[in-house]
Design goal:
By secondary structure, the protein is α+β, with helices and mostly antiparallel strands. It is built from 3 helices and 4 strands. Helices cover 40% and strands 31% of the residues. The mean pLDDT is 80.
């Protein structure tokens, strides 16, 4: 996968942990520190669709986090009024 074999495991573990923690956060009640009984991930599709891609480039390793759901960007970044 990479020209940097010692980094492969660290990068893979980081990506897996980030997706795992993102899934956990999606299942918490509330949003952006506001208390609510509503979960961000009510159907489960958003968390199930999370993933990552690891690319080896000349300058290093790039991790791109992905989602199968188009609305994931709005959950992460919010939207304009």
């Amino acid at each position: 996968m990479s020209r940097f074999p010692n980094i492969n495991k660290v990068v893979e573990d980081f990506a897996k942990d980030t997706v795992r923690l993102s899934r956990r956060n999606l299942n918490l009640n509330g949003f952006a520190g506001k208390k609510s009984n509503r979960k961000t991930n009510s159907s489960g599709r958003l968390s199930k669709g999370l993933g990552y891609k690891i690319q080896d480039t000349n300058s290093g390793v790039i991790i791109t986090f992905t989602s199968k759901q188009d609305y994931a960007r709005f959950v992460e970044e919010g939207r304009k009024k």
